[in-house]
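Progress report, Aim 2. The chain analyzed during this reporting quarter is listed below.
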Amino acid sequence: MKNVTGSNGSSLLIRPFEEHDQQAARQLILQGLGEHFGFIDEALNPDLNDIMTSYVRAGHSFLVAYSGPALVGTGALITVDEGTGRIVRVSTHRDYRRRGIGRTIVTFLLDQARERGYRRVFVETNNNWYDAIGLYQRLGFVEYGRNEHGVGMVMELD
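Predicted structure tokens for the chain:
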């Protein structure tokens, strides 16, 4: 658990996911997907039906960010293999965007990746999700592949 100060001076609490975060975290992620794509196909997101089982009990990391009582951000780090991780489910509530929350979550996840001994971390996003692509580039991720659906990026860790 860590308290940080956002870019607008507000306090932000980032901590591991707990069972009582389930509904708010699922809703936040699905809402963000719906805003971007114009619809939500919940069948494409079965991992969100039980985040504790899909991520935490499976040995992965799932973080939540709170501003006061409001859950405003999420992000997860999954293990691909012994030296590799993948960042997924980074989402920030629309009313809290452009405040450094996504950047802070990804930075925490990268720190966890280093602590776990990962040598590289991958991330994928849609090729028209320009804010996400820009965020990952600013953090040091490098594009390794692109097709009509998405962009793959990687960061080699020290």
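The CA atoms of residues 62 and 76 lie 4 Å apart. The domain at 2-156 is CATH 3.40.630.30 (Aminopeptidase). These observations will guide the mutagenesis work planned for the next reporting period.
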